[in-house]
Amino acid sequence: MTMYVIWSYEHRMWWGPNHAGYVDDLADAGRYTAPEAGRIVTNSVLLEELAVLEQVVLRFGGKPPAFHPYHGPVTGG
User: Fold this and answer.
1) Is 46 exposed, middle or buried (0-12, 13-18, 19+ CB in 10 A)?
2) Mean pLDDT score, 15-40
3) Which of 14, 24, 61, 66 has the fewest CB atoms in 10 Å of its CB?
4) b vs e for 15-27, b when ≥16 Cβ sit within 10 Å of the residue's Cβ?
């Protein structure tokens, strides 16, 4: 089954399992179905949450997205 992880630009962390908190490590992140991930990011009016296919994140070494759809490149901080 295709699963998604959710990156929070606001908290600069992954969403935890069952919508409970945030985690630094992708291994601890919650896994969400496409409909559930869609509901999460749709409720994020300012686009502070981004659903990413888990397999895509793994392909990039488990790193968070380096580009915000509205604001461009994401820098450290």
Assistant:
1) exposed
2) 95
3) 61
4) beeeeeebbeebe
- The token pair at 62 is 């488990």
Residue type, 9: Y
**pLDDT at res. 34:** 95
Hunting for tokens 């969403």 — which residue is that? 15
Choose among 45, 54, 47: nearest CA to 74. 47
**Helix, strand or coil, per DSSP, at residue 54:** helix
77: pLDDT strictly greater than 80: no
Q: Are 65 and 53 in contact (CB under 8 A)?
A: no
> Alpha carbon 18 to chain centroid distance?
14
